[in-house]
Design brief:
CATH topology: Pnp Oxidase, Chain A
Pfam families: Flavin_Reduct
Protein name: Flavin reductase
Keywords: Oxidoreductase
Shape: globular
Strand order of the largest sheet: 3-2-6-9-10-5-4
Number of domains: 1
Helix content: 10-25%
Structural class: alpha+beta
Number of strands: 12
CATH architecture: Roll
CATH superfamily: Electron Transport, Fmn-binding Protein, Chain A
Family: Belongs to the non-flavoprotein flavin reductase family.
Number of helices: 4
GO molecular function: FMN binding; riboflavin reductase (NADPH) activity
């Protein structure tokens, strides 16, 4: 299949700004799961940010997608490393989500973490699951970068939703607030 981009029609900046504001309001009502994306630079210094745009791209082969603002401080580190962990947060991890959504410089000191076998930071106390990926492709999309990662490993935290006999809630974001979603049986 070939996909061809259509040229955008010319609109004045006021119309564009108004449409952007309307779109932002509409999208704020669409609940999304919350992930903290973590990576580390070549010296092993961790970096991370909160996103509500993590999604499954493919099951075979396993691929994970996310969108990151082009101005995000973590983006250059992630691109240089070429790998990341998508920490899928459980319902009690609102504080960790808020820390990684902030501009704090001590994010990892405040939340704690474990290193995966490849040396990437994993928020094992806050993530029900962690999906470890290497970057497969990137596409600039407006003011964000769409990143697709090939899944190399999936980690389950103790007591996570995927562990038999447990039913942990998950964290979602919608209407500009965090919400705890119950796990479905």
């Amino acid at each position: 299949m070939t996909v061809t981009a259509r040229p955008a029609h010319h609109v004045d900046s006021h119309e564009t700004q108004e449409r952007s504001a309307q779109f932002r309001r509409a999208m704020s009502t669409l609940p999304a799961g919350v992930c903290v994306i973590t990576t580390a630079d070549s010296e092993g210094t961790p970096s991370g940010l909160t996103v509500s745009t993590g999604f499954s791209v493919s099951v075979t082969p396993p691929m994970f997608g996310l969108c990151i603002d082009l101005r995000a401080r973590t983006l250059p580190v992630l691109l240089q490393r070429g790998a990341f962990v998508a920490n899928i947060l459980h319902g009690d991890a609102e504080e960790a989500a808020a820390v990684f959504a902030s501009r704090a410089i001590d994010k990892f000191d405040r939340t704690g973490y474990t290193r995966t076998g490849t040396g990437l930071p994993w928020l094992d106390r806050h993530a029900a699951h962690a999906v470890e990926c290497t970057i497969n492709s990137t596409t600039e999309a407006g003011d964000h970068l769409l990143i697709v990662g090939a899944v190399g490993a999936v980690h389950a935290s103790p007591g996570s939703a995927g562990t038999p006999g447990t039913a942990q809630s998950m964290l979602a974001y919608g209407d500009r607030a965090f919400h705890r979603l119950p796990r479905l049986p």
